[in-house]
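User: I would dearly like some help making sense of a protein record. This is the protein in question:
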Amino acid sequence: MIMHNKDLHIEICGDDKEIAIVKLTRPAKRNALSDGLILAIRDAFDSMPSTVRAAVIDGEGDHFCAGLDLSELTERDAGQGLHHSRMWHAALERVQYGPVPVIAALHGAVVGGGLELASACHIRVADESTFYALPEGSRGIFVGGGGAVRIPRLIGAARMTDMMLTGRVYNAADGERIGLAQYLVSTGTASEKALELAKRVAQNAPLTNYALMHALPRIAEQPADQGFFTEAMMAAIAQSAPEAKQRVRDFLEGKAGTKVKKA
């Protein structure tokens, strides 16, 4: 199953149609994010087929995403700018808090809005060509796609401040070291690794994946006593699911594999 518009290509694959590959298709513009592309990403996650249990976001060509398409940067008053930013927030919210876990396959430029998009994903795989930057500071603008919330949670506010004040660029190895990616692979293999991880994630019980996507980030932000209560509620709900009960029975009866897969 393949869906395509001029900016976004979506392929549903796997034996059970359980993987969605969502690919930015503006290579001539280094996959820069237009409003149309942001809305297409939102719509892709809003209309994900029910068979899909994990997704990969990738970019066609040499770059994942070089950020905002500056040709679309128009003069707006404060109210218009506020609503425009909130539109991006709503779209990327569907990536982070949508129906399935999302793995980003990073390569080349992961810059500005591209880093905001990557930070909305749950797992980030970077190849050795990847570099990260937040050039908004030098352009007299500020991040507006959720980066001020998500990126400090990955690398800390001080590092993000440095990137925006000085224009600092992180290469792939240093990006993985500070937390911008969880995996670092050889150039040209990020898509392959991301797909491998997506297939593994798709094998999990859906309610467990939901808890990791929706509950865990909120627990991390709660005071400890609230976090413990939320955890207990989510644990009780997850283990009550019929699939979870069957998996536990299979494990106790020796029917399930127990070997831990290597990263």
Notes: The mean pLDDT is 92. The longest strand covers residues 8-13.
